Every structure is written in C-alpha cells, then in structure tokens.
Amino acid sequence: MRLHRLALASSALVAFGTVLAGAAQAEISDDAVKIGVLNDRSGLYADLSGEGSVVAARMAVEDFGGTVNGKAIEVLSADHQNKPDVGSNIARQWIDQDGVDVIVDVPTSSVALAVQQVTSEKDTAFLDSGAATTALTNDQCAPTFVHWTYDTYALSVGTGKAVVDEGGKSWFFLTADYAFGHQLEKDTAAVVEANGGTVVGSVNHPLSSSDFSSFLLQAQASGADVIGLANAGGDTTNAIKQANSFGIVQGGQKLAALLGFITDVDALGLDVAQGLTLTTGFYWDRNEDTRKFADRFAEKMNGQKPTMVQAGVYSAVMHYLKAVEEIDDDGGKAAVDQMKKMPINDFFAEDGTIREDGRMVHDMYLVQVKKPGDSAGKWDYYEIVKTIPGSEAFLPIEKSSCSLAKK
Amino acid sequence: MTDTAMKPATGLRGRRFVTPVLALLGIALLIAAPFFGIYPVFLMKLLCFALFACAFNLMLGFVGLLSFGHAAFFGMAAYVTGHAVKAWELNTVLGIGAGTAVAGVMGLVFGAIAIRQKGVYFAMITLALAQMVYFFCLQVPFTHGEDGIQGIPRGTVFGLFDLRDTLTMYYFVAAVFLVGIFVIYRTVHSPFGQALKGIRENEARMISLGYPVALLKVLAFTMSAALTGLAGSTKAIVFQTATLTDVNWHMSGEVVLMTLIGGMGTIFGPVVGAGVIIALQNYLATIGSWVTVVMGTIFVICVLTFRRGIVGEILARWPKKG
Asked: What pTM was estimated for this model as a whole?
C-alpha cells in the first residue's frame, strides 16, 4: 500500500515537476483520514468503552468540522473481543486494506500491546485510552503511540498517596494473585510507605473469585484504616459487594479501589459502593465544559454519562485531527511528533502535554463515591476530594524504561 | 457421546479417485488464495485454527473421546515457542519444534491420567488439567501474566526464507498446515487409525480381540496434543504474541464448535468449521456483540438440522459408486 503510494508520488513528481514533490512527501494518504475505534463491544469492557467510545470519536469528528484540510474524515469501529490475535488481525487489516491512519481506544492490556506491535511496525498512530498497563510507555513504548487517559500507576499511586494524605495511614491489601495484582500492590505500598503510611498486611486471592469472605474477615480483623483492592473488574465489584455485607465501610474502614470506573459504580449501586475511594482521569460533573460534553454524549447514548475512557477518546481524536491539520500529513510518527509539540486544552485536560515516552500527562482526580442520600440521581456518583496534579499522577519520566525517554 | 451423534464418513472405497483430485485442488487453492484478494494474515489464522480443529478431531471424531482441555496444548505450545524464539533466540523452526514437543509430552501425561475414564468424566478431567495449566501460565514469570509474550520475532527458516515478508510467512504456514493434515490423514488411514475407529465403535470388542486399547488411546491423545501444539506454535509466530486467550477454556470450547459445525470424524470437516467460525469472527467484528449471537444461532441450527456437520452432511449424501 505504502509502496504503491510512493510509486504514485514519484510519478506525480515526474509529471508535474518539483513544486508538487514537496507536497507529495507529506500528505494525507488515500485522500481521507480514517479513524479506527478498536475496543470491546461485547464483553466486560463494553460499558466503559464500547459503543460509547465510537460515539465520542464521531462527536470529535463532528466538532472538528467533518473534514481536515478538505479531506474527509471517516470513523470505523470493530470488536476485538478482548483477544490479542483478533485485535492485531483487525489492526493489520485496517492498515493494509482499509487505509486506517489512527487506531484509538483499545482496552485490555494484552490486546493493546499486540496492537502496539502492529502500529509501530506500520507507522500508524495509536492513541490508547482504554488499556491500563504501564508497559505501553515503558519497555514496549513506540514513537507512534500515545497513552491518553490513565494507567495502573496513575490509578493506584494516585489513590495511595491521596488517601494517606487524607489520613488513611494503615493499609491492608486484598490482592489478585497474579502479576498484575502484585504489581498494583507493590506500586501502591511503595507510595503509602513513602508518604508516612504503613502496610499492616495483605492477602492474596485467586483470580476471578466469587467468595471473598475469608479474605475480607482478615482485612477487617487487621484493623487497618484502609483496605486496598489490588484487583480489577469482576473481582473488584465482588469484593466491594461482599465488603458491604460485612459492613466494613459502615464499621469505619475505608475501601480503596485501585482500578475502578464510573460504570462499575453504576453497576454496583450507591448503596453498595458508597464511601469507596478511587482515582479517575475524568468526571463528567466537574465543571461547565465537562457537563456540556456529558449532556451531548448522554443524548446519543440513552442517558449514559461518559466514562473517563470515552471522554479520553474524544480528547485524543480531537488533538490528533488538530495535529494532522497543522502538518497536513497522517503518517503515524509525524502526527504523533506534532501532537507532542502541542499542549492539550479541552474539557478533558488543562495544559496536558505528551511526553517523549508517549504518556499524556494531565490532572487526575481523587474521588469518593457519594452516599445514596447525597446523590441527586443516576450518574451523580462522585465527590471530587482532591485534584492530583499531572506531575504527581504519573510515573516520572526519569523512571521510565522507555528507550525514547533516554535520549 | 452416542453412536448416532457421530455417523462418520464410511465407504471411502467408492471415492478413491475423488480424494487425490480434491487434495490437489485444495493445494492449488492454498497456493493461489493470497492472489484472490483474500487477506493473507486472515488466511494464516484460518490455517492455524484449521490444523488445531483437525488435531482435536483426531480425538473426538476418530477415537470418540471429547477432550475439553485442548487449549492447554495450544496455548502452552504458543508460550514455549514465543519464549524460545524471543528470549533464547532460537531459530523459528526450532522454536515451533520445541512448542510441539512440549505439547506432545503434556499430551502424554494428560492422556495417561485422563484415559482411564470415558464420556463426560474424560471431558471433566481434561478440563481440570487444562485449568491447572491456565493458572500455571497466569503465575509463572516467563508468560508475563496478563500481558502475554509480545513482539515475538518471526525470524527466518534456517536463514533461507525471511518470514517477516507476509507472503513467505503465508507459504510457510501453508506448508506446516499441509504437513499436519498429511500426518492426520495417514494416521487415520493406517492400521493404527483403523484400530482407533474400532475403539470408537466398540471398545469391549477391541479389548477382547487383544488390542492394547489404553495404549492406543494414549498414543492418539499424544499425537492430537502434539499437532495442536504445532498449530499453537505456528499461530504464535504469525501473530507474534502468545497470551492467556490461547490457554483459556473458551478456546477449548471454540475448537469443539469448529469441529461440530464442520463435521467430526471427517478429515476436512474441521477445516471448513474453522473457516466458518474464523470468518464470522473476522468479518462480523464490526457488528459488535451480535457476533456471539450469530455464532450461537449457527451452532443451534447445525445441531438441530445437520448433525453431521457441513462436510459430514455432504459426504453422507455423496452418491456412492460401486
């Protein structure tokens, strides 16, 4: 495809002389900018990304004006079913056959890492909003990649530091017994201790547990101020539900979810989730701009407010289009390089910047889930306790193991 | 499994001519396919799963034992190959060999344990063993847990062919696939294969005839596992990843689905079944959650109306000469 384009460009060169040649080198391929929204549309992440992310991408295209430098903008979408091989296959096919120029969203770490291989090999921009792993901006970073919304470090460390600052000095961890859970616990414990807190104990539970009673009783008996849930998805929601049955929050202990989304809170209900502390990259009810976006989004999504992942997709697509307009080129590295030069200012981020390793740095928010009585209704779930400045929220670039950061 | 559920393709004699012609046609199609505008990466995926389904079918279709743990061989082989090629920098072919060998050894162990039981108990034991493998893969460091092994280099075939080229990779996969199918075909039509079919039809009689039934079953299981491993290893090289998806029990279920839709107990049934399922997954990816609904519907229709599967049904209606 690219060779073909090169051949075309060179024949244009011969035909029209050198004036056109300059333009032919940097150009928008296939006379269109194609945005591929690749995410989970049928499984456990369908609520927090899924169709909502596609709607967000379309909104960004609409708000941008539908064309960039006179070239049409198209939005494609597909379901990766949380399978890395399906994801990388779609990514390849999109790039090779459909001329997709940028892939966005891609929740599920393993799929995102697989797509990262494809996009970096084929010089296609990849703006991830949905995946959590920090590997994307460390060992496996790429010059065509931007990690937009959050990562495990921001969520766990953000929550860890903020909760200690708020007085939660002693911690007990409930950890999913696999690499991800242990990493989450280790990162958070380091921050807790660095900020003067103590870790009084931890217990490992098998992945996808349905019975947390014995683990929760240990956590309760430890007398710790805070119970940190170093797990994700169904494990987090199950643990929260059962903690509620044991009256842990009512008993004065705090629950801190190290990886949680507003859709999880919605699924649990405020009765169960109340008092839960977590970190988020976006909350729809933060200010006038966020509310305006959320209302427009909700209109298209049967009243659902955007999650941070969906809001991040809008912001990423918008910034990408601005960069492409600026340089009139949709090559992956060229576009991402331009994105790194421009600050991000929209409802999602104030003065956000993209670092060399591909990490988009913006403020994160520590929130506490409201009591049912304090909530005005559906989706009115969070109380913003604290704004975590971007400089504290993400892994410092000096510690990044990304080869691009070492220059 | 009851006998009615698996009426195999009998009376192969009448089709003596047809088989080589079909085989040649198949090979020609395989060689020409990338030039008909079909996406080669998709074809490679299809071939890997087709081989997987065929290897699985060796157990289900020809021995009559439903294994619900074949993902363990598929995924483990992918991990071993990925690790061997990436961390130990082994040649791709040796890496695939290592994956296949490990899967074969696992098959021997699993087989020796599970073969004592039949029917649903056999399925449950294989499932339990496969779950153990799944949690093993989740925990050990070399698989990188959830993230999986990423960026496995495709390498070369002994320095002769560069597999980074998509078309070269495709022909490599096609060759692996043909070798796998050939091995299965020869096995099924050998005295060993006949004995396996005998076990499927009437195990007690085979024992009374003096066949070492348990040994034959373990051998078949080992072969099936090794070929599954071959498919898994090749897939790891094609997609350059090895992840938990491959060892998950969903994968074991998917291969059952492929085999049943295509037609168990036939050589090419699983190939067709894999084609149908993979094509659905691929081309329907844009319609989101409907993929699973469509696949479920197809499965129900298949079970209700053509229980022999697509190829099984065609073979059963084929006019028999002589």
From this structure: 0.81
